[in-house]
Design brief:
About 35% of the residues lie in helices and about 15% in strands. The protein is built from eleven helices and seven strands. The longest helix has 19 residues. Helix 8 crosses helix 10. With about 270 residues, it is an alpha/beta fold. The protein starts with a helix and ends with a strand.
Length: about 270
């Protein structure tokens, strides 16, 4: 095995150890915690991540989003049925998942409005992936209905994979969601109300430099890089960034994010 592959395997094993250490249920919970997935090298997934068919701007963000390690932590396997929720016009995750699942005889479905259907038959999905959406759902009062739809789409033992801008512990989502952040406790509580069990959490996508105090919310940071007040947004600072401020926010990188793996009980 090449030295780079050995290093990657070691990194994934460390991620597995860290995830396992955080996988215990909260005090007072009677939820059973499934064992973390065995993290093994997947050459097809590596190729999908490294593919030059992905936009160059997408690949430049890999340093912040760790796609191979994150998908491996979530337990993606060849031939899986994966539903991605609200992938957006850019389709950052779908540019990896679609070719990977096509090559491994899996199935990919993109769903923009879970209230209208989940794109797969009930109880057949191996994974439902939600990236950076909980702040929007909280503001629209849609979180619980959507989580119920995810639970119904997954097969027993299936995974709800979450990547989300992370607010400070104990924060009120009413106050933080307009700025793009919600707390881990908010996401975990919503998942548990729908019947999910927290399987593991990872710090793969943590960023201690992100203090969450930005003039235009999380969108001040890369990749959006909002630098002036947006029309009709009362939460924005009324003045644009100076050049020095723009450089300082760029130096932070992308947001601090939780990376969570929930499981539908078997």
């Amino acid at each position: 095995m090449r030295a780079s592959s050995l290093a990657l395997t070691a990194a994934l094993l460390l991620a597995s150890t860290a995830a396992s250490a955080q996988a215990m249920p909260a005090a007072g919970s009677n939820a059973l915690t499934a064992a973390p997935p065995v993290l093994q090298e997947d050459a097809v997934l590596q190729a999908a991540v490294a593919s030059e068919a992905r936009p160059a701007a997408d690949r430049a963000r890999d340093v912040y989003r760790h796609p191979y390690e994150t998908l491996t932590f979530w337990g993606l396997t060849p031939g899986a049925t994966v539903v991605e929720i609200q992938p957006g016009r850019a389709g950052w995750w779908s540019a990896i998942l679609q070719p990977y699942l096509a090559q491994t005889n899996g199935r990919y479905a993109a769903v923009n409005n879970p209230a209208e259907g989940m794109g797969v038959e009930a109880g057949t999905a191996d994974m439902v992936l939600v990236a950076r959406a909980f702040h929007n759902w909280h503001r629209g009062g849609r979180t619980d209905a959507f989580m119920t739809a995810f639970f119904g789409a997954l097969k027993p033992g299936g995974v709800l994979a979450v990547e989300q801008h992370r607010a400070a512990p104990g924060s009120n989502p009413d106050a933080t969601a307009p700025f793009g952040y919600v707390s881990e406790a908010h996401v975990i509580a919503a998942a548990e109300r729908a019947g999910f069990v927290l399987d593991a959490s990872s710090e793969l996508n943590a960023n201690a430099r992100d203090d969450r105090d930005h003039p235009y919310g999380v969108w001040t940071l890369p990749p959006v890089r909002t630098s002036a007040p947006r029309e009709g947004n009362p939460n924005d600072r009324p003045t644009p960034l100076t050049e020095a401020e723009r450089a300082a926010f760029d130096a932070i990188g992308e947001s601090d994010r939780m990376t969570l793996r929930f499981r539908k009980p078997a």
